Amino acid sequence: MTMVLVLALAGAVGGLTGPALADEGPPPADRQLLFYNHAYGVLDRETADAVEHSGYLRDFANFQVRTTTGADGRTWTGRYLMGRETYLELFGEGDLPGQDGTSGAAGLGLSTERAGDLATVTGRLRDQGVEPVEFRQTRDFGDGVPVPWFDAVFTTTTYDAFGAWGMEYLPEYFADPRGNTEPASYPGDVGRERYLSDDYQDRLMRDVTYVHLGVTETDLGNTVPLLRAGGFVVRPVPGGVLAVRGGTTLRLDSVPRDRAGLRQVGMSLNRSVDHRHEERIGRSTLVVGPGSHAVWTFGGTP
C-alpha cells in the first residue's frame, strides 16, 4: 500500500475532521469521467432465493436471472435489476468462488461514457501515487470465442470483502449483435445507456440513484482514490464517506468485516405512484412510493 492510500484511509476513517478529508487528494475533474454503472452484493441464501423467485420484482423491474461466461471461461449466475443506465447485481452465499462468495462481499463498477476517459482516470491514479492494476474482461456468448467486453482498472489486487473498479466498454462488444446494444449517440459513445436495453420502459424501476455499503477500513482506503480520479466529490460523514456527482450517490461506511455488505439501494421510477407499497423479500424490504422513488433495505442495516 502506497502512502497516498494510507493517507486516504486515515482521512476517510481515521477520525480526522471534515476539512482534513476534503483537502486530501486532488480536486475532482472538471468533467465527470466515471459514473455509477452497477453494484453487486452477496446476500444470505434465504434472501437470494426469494429475490430469484419473486413475482413482484419481475413486474417492478427489467429483472433477469442470467449466467455469464467471462475471461478464462469463468462463469457466474446473478440476479439482475436493469435500468436505463444503471443496474443492480445480486448473488447468494456460495454463488461465487472463494471469498467473493461469502455473505457481505460486494463490488462497485464505475464506467466511462466516452472512449479514452479510462486512460485519463488511470493517469490520475498514478498522479495520486497509486499503481493501477489493469485488466481486460471478455464475454463468451456460447460459441467458445471470447469477445472483448470492457477494460478495467483497479487500485489493488488485495481486498477484504469489497472491491471497486473503473471500466470502459469496448468497440468489439458494441459491434457484436449478440450484445443487443444500441447505436452510438455521439462519436466515442461507450456509455451505459447504449449498453443497456430499453426494456426498463415497461417496468417501474428506472435507475439506481443511491447505494449504501458497509466496507472494511482497508477496502475503503483502496476505493477513495478511484472515486476521486473519476471526478466524484468525496465528503466525510459519520463513520465513512459520501461520494456525490454523476447522478448516483454512494455512501461507504467503515465497519468490521462481519458487518460488511450491501445495506440499502435507492431507485428512481419511470412514473410516480400514489401509494406506499412494502414488499418483504427474504430478509430484505423493498418500499415503493409514494412518489417516483423506491428504497430497498437489506438485512443487517442499522
Q: What do these coordinates show?
A:
- The protein starts with a helix and ends in a 5-residue tail after the last strand.
- With about 300 residues, the protein is of the alpha+beta class.
- The model is unreliable at about 1-25 (pLDDT under 50).
- A hairpin with a 2-residue loop joins strand 14 (about 275-280) and strand 15.
- It has one domain (about 5-295).
- Strands 2-3-4-1-5-8-7-6 form an 8-stranded mixed beta sheet.
- It has 8 helices and 16 strands.
- Helix 1 crosses helix 8 (about 215-230).
- The protein is globular.
- The longest helix has 13 residues, at about 215-230.
Summarize the amount of helix as a percent range: 10-25%
Q: What is the total domain count?
A: 1
Mean of pLDDT: 90
* Proportion of residues in β-strands: 35-45%
Structural class given helices, strands, pairing?
A: alpha+beta
Query: Can you list the strand order of the major beta sheet?
Result: 2-3-4-1-5-8-7-6
Distance between the termini: 31 Å
Query: What order do the SSEs take from the amino end to the carboxyl end, as H and E?
Result: HHEHHEEEEHEEEHHEHEEEEEEE
**Individual helix count:** 8
* Uncertain segments: 1-24
> Biggest β-sheet: count, sense, barrel?
8 strands, mixed
Taken from the alpha-carbon principal axes, the silhouette is globular
- E-strand count: 16
Q: Radius of gyration over alpha carbons? A: 19 Å
Protein name: LigA protein
Keywords: Signal
Pfam families: DUF5829
Signal peptide: 1-22
